[in-house]
Amino acid sequence: MHRLIIINIDEYVLTLQDEEENNYKKVIDFINTDYKPKLGDYITLPDNVLKQDNLFVYGDVYDKDKDDIILVKREDKNIYLQRYYG
């Protein structure tokens, strides 16, 4: 898992930066959730998501037994989201 900070948002294209200052552009849509990405949010993504260039869709957790749950940190708040597609 990689901890990345959101440094730019262009509609569904998020520019993310890791601790070594490598940048990644990911097309991510958030549905079925109140979460909307903001600059400065930290998002934790698995290796396979960073290596793929397709669309990813995340939303509220519906099955806690799945292993495709990510963590978003906004200030003191932890937000858990589950991958629906991608």
Explain this structure.
The protein is 6% helix and 53% strand. Strands 1-2-3-5-7-6-4 form a seven-stranded mixed β-barrel. The two termini are 17 Å apart. The protein is mainly beta and 86 residues long.
The biggest beta sheet is recorded as: 7 strands, mixed, barrel
Annotation field: number of helices: 1
Spans where pLDDT lies below 50 across 5 or more residues: none
Shape: globular
Helix content: under 10%
Distance between the termini: 17 Å
What is the beta-strand fraction?
over 45%
Rounded average pLDDT? 92
Q: What is the alpha-carbon Rg in Å?
A: 12 Å
What class do helices, strands and sheet pairing give? mainly beta
Strand order of the largest sheet: 1-2-3-5-7-6-4
User: How many strand segments?
Assistant: 7
H/E element sequence: EEEEHEEE
